[in-house]
Hints:
Layout: E1 8-13, E2 32-38, E3 49-51, E4 54-62, E5 66-71
Antiparallel strand pairs: 1-2, 2-5, 3-4, 4-5
Amino acid sequence: MSLSLSLTVMSVTLQNAATTTSLQGSIMGGTKLYFQGLGFSTTMDENVIYIGDYPCILEDGATATAMVCRTTPPDQYQ
Length: 78
């Protein structure tokens, strides 16, 4: 049996709104990212987000169209 999943990320912002003035966060982690798109799993464990080599920890639940994660500090995973 093969499993094929498809998702589309439409936007990533630093605030839960349509516009933002900055797309920068701390190199020490802790930046909250809001993802809008299609095809996300509503089961949080089935959604995995990495920013570069570092995991972004999911928060606040997940819907089929939205997810929120908090970045981790790089030294935590070296």
